[in-house]
């Protein structure tokens, strides 16, 4: 990851990023370059995968609220 930042390689990594719509930091694929996170990638999820992802976000949110 350090190399990607220093050399502005713009490689894809699973990173902990802030998702505004869910108001949470969560692991998500993103492009990393000289300026940090260059772009968060969208996931092409099936309906079931999207539901499971949302359930995970809810579980993490509930845990953090405790």
Which secondary structure elements does this structure contain, and how are they paired or packed?
Blueprint: H1 2-6, E1 11-19, E2 24-33, E3 36-40, H2 47-65
Antiparallel strand pairs: 1-2, 2-3
Describe the structure in your own words.
This protein is of the alpha+beta class. The chain is 36% helix and 36% strand. The protein has helices at residues 2-6, 47-65; strands spanning 11-19, 24-33, 36-40. The chain has a three-stranded antiparallel sheet. The mean pLDDT is 91.
Task: Please summarize what this structure is.
This protein has 66 residues and is an alpha+beta fold.
Order of helices and strands: HEEEH
Report the sheet with the most strands, covering strand number, pairing sense and barrel closure.
Answer: 3 strands, antiparallel
**Which descriptor suits the 3D outline?**
elongated
Count of helical regions = 2
| Uncertain ranges | none
Gyration radius, in Å: 14 Å
> How do the strands line up in the largest sheet?
1-2-3
C-alpha end-to-end distance? 33 Å
The count of DSSP E runs of length 2 or more, i.e. the number of strands, is: 3
Range of helix content: 25-40%
What structural category arises from helix and sheet content? alpha+beta
- What oligomeric state best describes the polypeptide chains here? single chain
Classify the beta-strand content into a percent band: 35-45%
Mean pLDDT: 91
């Amino acid at each position: 990851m350090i190399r990607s930042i220093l050399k502005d390689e713009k490689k894809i990594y699973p990173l902990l990023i802030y998702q505004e719509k869910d108001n949470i930091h969560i692991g998500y694929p993103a492009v990393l370059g000289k300026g940090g996170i260059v772009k968060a990638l969208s996931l092409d999820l099936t309906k079931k995968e999207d539901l499971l992802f949302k359930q995970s976000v809810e579980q993490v949110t509930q845990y953090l609220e405790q």
